[in-house]
Structures are given as C-alpha cells and as structure tokens.
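Recap from last week: sequence in, structure out.
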Amino acid sequence: MSTFLDERPRSVRSLSRFLTFALIAVIGVTGLTARLFYLQMVDGGRLATLSTRNRTVLEAIQAPRGVIFDRTGRALVSNVPTFVVKLRPADLPLDQRPDVVARLAALLRMPAADINGAIDGNPGSTFDLVRIASDVDEQTARLISEAGSDLPGVEAVIEARRQYTDGPLMSHILGYTGPISGEQLGELKSAGYLPDDDAQGAADSLRRLPPGSRRRGDDAAATFG
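Predicted structure tokens:
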C-alpha cells in the first residue's frame, strides 16, 4: 500500500512536467509560426525591397551629347572617346592617402598638391567621384586600372569629349561644358543650383536653372551654314 502511494505522486509530477513542456513547445511553435506569417505575408514586400537595395546600386550613366551638323550635313562638333581618371574619397583609407596620391601623381605626371586640392575641393559627398585628370593616354589608364589593389578608390573610365571640326573657337558659338569649383557651387546654391546626382560627381555639372537662364555648355539646337 505504501509503495502504491509513493508511486502515485511520482506519476503525477511526471505528467505535470510533460504537460508543462508540451505547453511551452506549443506556445513556441505558435509564436514562430505567427512571426513567420507576419514576415512573409504582411511585411514581405518591404523586406524584399530592403534586400534588393542592399545588394544593388543604382548608378547613372551620362548620356553623350548630340552631334551638330551644318546645313550640308557636315559635322561641326562630335564626340570622341577619352580616358579620365577619377577617385572616390570614401573608398580611399586615410592612412593610405599619401602613398596613393604620390603614386597617382607619378603616373599622371602632375603635382601631388593638385590631386589633394581636387579631393579636398570636392563640393559633394565623399561617395562622389572626383575628377583627377582628363585626356589621359591609354597606356597610363591601363596601368591605373590594373593597379586597383594598390590604388583604392581610383578608377580609369572612358568618357566622351567634344571635338570641334573647325577648331576650339566654334565652342563659343556651339556651346561647351566644364566643371565648376566648390566655391562657385556655394555661391550659386542660393540661386537654386544643385549638384547632379550622377557618377560624374557634384563638380561636373548643375541640375536646376533659374527661370529664363541657360546652362553654360548647352549646345545650340539650330544648324549653322
């Protein structure tokens, strides 16, 4: 009799522990299922968008300017490919900057002070590409492209350069483009000018013009004889 009474509480305690464990397991599975349903069905669209943004980068590609012809069909101004060296300050570690600038100056045969001035004078963010040199010869551009690990943040890209058939004097009639400095951008911001959000960087062009004005470098729409 005493043995039966001793075994009964044990079985009750075992049953209680089993029911408690089962209840916790049911609550846990139910919570995980509810959370999974919320992530997949309710918040799935937002999370998918965030995931896409984390693995993709939108980069604007500058459109080439149009060719201008005279009334006989002869090209007055066209585009020719040229190599341009640019640098993204955000990708250049501060402790490596002196070495990178010195090596880049040796390759481009230009003063290191000019490179530092271009980097420090960038009016945009550190993620904008800063133009270091234009019309770089092909051999130097290839050397810079192949030395990517030794020149972090430096890129050699191909851009279109305007070529005037009758010489540079025609640029005053047909229009021309050129970068502006950080000081000029600061003076023009009050007039509504803003830096472009493209791969050229903030210093390469302007985005919005006041009413009635004309951007420097807008090619004439008419043809000339």
